[in-house]
Specification:
Shape of chain A: globular
Number of helices of chain A: 11
Shape of chain B: elongated
Helix content of chain B: over 70%
CATH class of chain B: Mainly Alpha
Oligomer: heterodimer
Strand content of chain B: under 5%
CATH topology of chain B: Methane Monooxygenase Hydroxylase, Chain G, domain 1
Strand order of the largest sheet of chain A: 8-9-10-5-11-12
Largest interface: A-B, 14 and 13 residues
Structural class of chain B: mainly alpha
CATH superfamily of chain A: P-loop containing nucleotide triphosphate hydrolases
Largest sheet of chain B: none
CATH superfamily of chain B: Phosphate transport system protein phou homolog 2, domain 2
Number of domains of chain B: 1
Largest sheet of chain A: 6 strands, mixed
Number of strands of chain B: 0
Distance between the termini of chain B: 49 Å
Strand content of chain A: 15-25%
Number of helices of chain B: 6
Radius of gyration of chain B: 19 Å
Helix content of chain A: 25-40%
Order of helices and strands of chain B: HHHHHH
Number of domains of chain A: 1
CATH architecture of chain B: Up-down Bundle
Structural class of chain A: alpha/beta
Radius of gyration of chain A: 19 Å
Chain lengths: 294, 221
């Protein structure tokens, strides 16, 4: 879908969704028990979102707003559905056979699952970084510029590569080796290369699924510093098993919990990270973050 | 470390804190007793034992820092450790106030009594009742009780002002009493500070339960 068409679709959907939005009255900063609406403009508004894998209800009834240019962390025990929820946000679940979504995910007011919305465009705007660094077996330059070329991003390959690598705090380390294979880099550098690759297509949101779980503490700190730096321009949503990491890097944290592994994951608590980690409102959050279960 | 072992250590630091609190309570009570009865040996014992109270604080701090660094505690675990850190500092300073009173008891032991002690023992009784109430509020996580204890501080403040005025009158009418009266004002001041520090303990109880740090001691004095 071309940019103009997408904009037109967005406008139409926005106009249609306006009365619904006012009914829901998601006032920024308001509170509904343990699920709070963060201050500021929202990138995503999730209404009653659920995901089925075949006949298994993986997550259900998720209602939350994700604020712009902030880091939002998704935490919870294994199988609670946090990665499933993350993948919903850029339609990555479309690629999983048997997966289907219910409810509505509005991105800047547009339902990303509306028929006329192109999932490829959704994924350009909402990039993703995975648990294990997955550079292509190509040069560093090609790794960064590959997606940009496909998406016809303006600039020469060197310009695009430099811009993205600088943003990913990798430029100084690789500027003299752009022709070297991306696979020759260290794990931490490979992960920053993947972040550069995501940034090169000029997204608005970056989803990160346990981006540091395969990295050593030094490489982890570099990625965490980078995450904070990137919030000047981007919205970041990060799934992490490391609660200290969620506490260090995020502005808001959502805690999910499943009835049993992989079944009916629900949003238990969502609010400012400093409050959730010092004074959670729900006993289940308290029990999880203090290690009483999970 | 397992959760059970961590739980045990959390209990330990709180039990140690309560033992320290009972040492402080005894020191305050005995310091006034030493003053009233001119008991030099008792006063000296209080002064010597202050080092034990100080040591309790350092031990508590060491254990708390260790738990923070090794366990990265969160939520109520974190608040428990932080409250112990706050409370032990206040208890240690209360021990210093008791030591201060004991030192004055020593200095006044050779002097003729200025007047019968009425308001000063009353101040210490209220301060001790406040301390007991605060510790009870801590044990039971009762924030209402903690807030009620804070309100009692006004009574101590009122008595302090009364003692101060009375002793000032002594000094004006007979300059020979200046030294003794000044010592007694210090005693009253130490007791007033003990009560103030109890209100800090109550604030730590409210933080422990509600997760918010407030200045709750908005005195009318």
């Amino acid at each position: 879908m071309k940019e103009a068409e997408l904009r037109e679709t967005e406008d139409r959907l926005q106009a249609a969704a306006a009365p619904l939005a006012s009914l829901a009255d998601p006032t920024p900063g308001s509170e509904l028990g343990a699920i709070r609406v963060p201050d500021g403009e929202a990138v995503f508004e999730l209404s009653d979102v659920g995901v089925w894998y075949g006949n298994k209800h993986a997550i259900s009834g998720i209602n939350m707003q994700i604020p712009v240019r902030k880091v939002t962390a998704l935490i919870g025990p294994s199988g609670c559905g946090k990665s499933t929820l993350l993948r919903c946000l850029n339609r990555m679940n479309d690629l999983i056979p048997g997966a289907r979504i219910e409810g509505e995910i509005n991105y800047h007011g547009t339902d990303i699952y509306a028929k006329k919305v192109d999932p490829v465009e959704v994924r350009r705007r909402i990039g993703m970084v995975f648990q294990k660094p997955n550079p292509f077996p190509k040069s560093i330059r090609d790794n960064v510029t590959f997606g940009a070329k496909v998406n016809r991003i303006k600039g020469t390959p060197d310009e695009i590569a430099e811009r993205a690598l600088r943003q990913a705090a990798l430029w100084e380390e690789v500027k003299n080796d752009l022709s070297k294979s991306g696979l020759a880099l260290s794990g931490g550098q490979q992960q920053r290369l993947c972040i550069a690759r995501a940034l090169a297509v000029q997204p608005d949101v970056i989803l990160m699924d346990e981006p540091c779980s395969a990295l050593d503490p030094i490489a982890t700190l570099k990625i965490e510093d980078l995450i904070r730096e990137l919030t000047k321009e981007y919205t970041i949503i990060i799934v992490t098993h490391n609660m200290q990491q969620a506490a260090r890097v995020s502005d808001n944290t959502a805690f999910l919990l499943a009835q049993e592994h992989g079944v009916n994951g629900q949003l238990i608590e969502y609010g400012p990270t400093n409050e959730l980690f010092t004074n959670p409102r729900d006993k289940r959050t308290e029990d999880y973050i203090t290690g009483r279960f999970g | 470390m397992t959760r059970a072992a961590f739980e045990r250590q959390l209990n330990e630091i709180q039990e140690d804190m309560l033992v320290m609190a009972s040492m402080v309570e005894t020191a305050v009570l005995q310091s006034i007793e030493a003053l009233k009865t001119r008991n030099v040996a008792l006063a000296q014992r209080i002064i010597e034992h202050d080092i034990d109270i100080n040591q309790k604080r350092y031990d508590a701090e060491e254990k708390c820092v260790e738990l923070i660094s090794l366990q990265a505690p969160l939520a109520s675990d974190l608040r428990t450790i932080i409250s112990v850190l706050h409370i032990t500092v206040d208890l240690e300073r209360m021990g210093d106030h008791a030591e201060g009173i004991a030192k004055i008891a020593l200095m006044l032991s050779d002097e003729p009594p200025l007047k019968p002690y009425i308001d000063i023992p009353r101040m210490s009784e209220i301060a001790i009742r406040m301390l007991e109430g605060a510790l009870d509020a801590y044990r039971t996580r009762d924030t209402d009780k903690a807030r009620r204890v804070i309100d009692m501080d006004d009574e101590v403040d009122a008595l302090y002002e009364q003692v101060y005025r009375e002793l000032l009158t002594f000094m004006i009418s007979d300059p020979k009493t200046i030294q003794r009266a000044t010592y007694l004002i210090w005693v009253a001041h130490n007791l007033e500070r003990v009560a103030d520090r109890v209100t800090n303990i109550c604030e730590a109880v409210v933080y422990l339960v509600e997760g918010r740090i407030h200045d709750l001691n908005v005195s009318t004095y």
